[in-house]
Amino acid sequence: MADAFENILGQPQVRDFLRRSTACGRVSHAYLFTGPAGSNKTLAAYALAQAVLCPQGPHGPRGGDCGACDACQRVMRRKHPDVRYFAPEGAGGYLVEQIREIVADAAYAPIQAKKKVYILDRVDLLGTACANAFLKTLEEPPADVVLVLLGRTRESVLPTIVSRCQVVPFRHIPATEAAGILSQNTGASLEKARIAIEACGGSITRGIEFLKSNERLAFRARVLDVLASLRLADDWDVVSQAADLVLLSKAPLDVVRAAQEEELAENADFLAKSAIRQIEARNKRALTAKSAESLRQLTAIVQSWLRDVLAVCAGTPELVINVDVRGVLEEAAVHASEARAAVALSAVRRCDEAISYNVSPETCIDALLFEVRDALFGAARPAGRPAGGAR
Description:
Layout: H1 12-23, E1 30-34, H2 41-53, H3 70-76, E2 83-86, H4 96-106, E3 116-120, H5 128-139, E4 145-151, H6 159-162, E5 166-169, H7 175-186, H8 190-199, H9 204-212, H10 214-229, H11 235-249, H12 251-267, H13 273-313, H14 326-335, H15 338-356, H16 361-377
Parallel strand pairs: 1-4, 1-5, 2-3, 3-4
C-alpha cells in the first residue's frame, strides 16, 4: 500500500525505518539525515513531514495511506505553512541571526496543523557560534516541533549537533542504479534516464521532474547548442550566450513566484500579519534555493558534456552519456585533448563554488563559458577570433 514514504527511491532501509517510526508513534524530536547530494534526503524529510502533519495519522481511517487530504497535498507541493525549509544564507554557511530567527519562530504555535516541521539543509555548514545558538532548541524543542537536519556526512557535522539527533544514514546511489530506478518509474528509455540523472546531479527526484518538463528538456538542448558553438565563438558571442543561459535558468522562478503569490492571496484573509511575514520569508528562501538549483542544473549539463568529450578523447566512447549529440562531441574531441578537457572540468567546479558563495549568476556563467572555451579550444581556435579580454 502506497504511503508518504513510497517515493523515497533507492533508499529501502530509510523508507522502512521511517515507516516503522511513524506507525509506532516513535517520531524523534530531532533527526540528522546524512548522505551525498542526490540521495533523496530532502524528499525523505518532506515525506516525514507529511506523515507527521497528516490529520489522518498512521492509525487513521486510511492507515497512513492518505496523500489526498489538504494537509498532505500542501506538504507534497511544499506549500504547507507549518513545514519550514532553511538553507545557509551566508557566503560561508548559516548566519547566527538566521539561527536565532529559527529558534524564535519555533516558539510560536503551528498555523494550521498540530505540529511544525523544520527542515535545515546543509547543517555541515553550521558553525560553532550558530550551533551554540541552536543547541537548547535542538535538545529540547517545543512539544509541537520536529527538527530534520540534512548533512553530507556525519563527520562533517559538529559533534554537539550529532549527539542531539537520531542519525539516519542515506547511501550513495550509483548513477547506473539511479538511471535504472528512474527508467522504471517514468517509462523513459535508459539512455534518457542516464541523461536526466547527469543533468540533475544524480538526484532521482529531480530527474523525474526533469523528464516531465518540456521547458527543462529545451533548456538542456540550448545549453548543448551553446557548448557546440564555443569553438567558433568570439568574445561577444560568449557574452550574449551566457546572458541567454542565465535568463533561461531563471524561467522556473516565474512559475514558483506566481504559485507563491496565489497561495498568499488565498490565505491572506485568515492569517495573522506575523504568519504572512513568515510565509513571505519562507517564499523568499524557496526562490533563492530554486535559483541555485537551476544554475547547478546548468553546470551539471556542462560538466556531463565535458566528461563525454574527455571520454571520446580517451578512446572510450562507450562511456558517453549524451548520446543524442555524439557527433558534436566527436567534433569537439578532434580539436581538444584529455588534458584540455580536464582543465575545462575544473572550471565547472570553480563555477559551482562561486554559486555557493552567492556570486551573481551573470558573472558565474560568463566566466564559465570563457574558461571552457579557452581551456578546450584555446590553441585550436580559427585565426581572427579573439580569445578572452574583450568583454
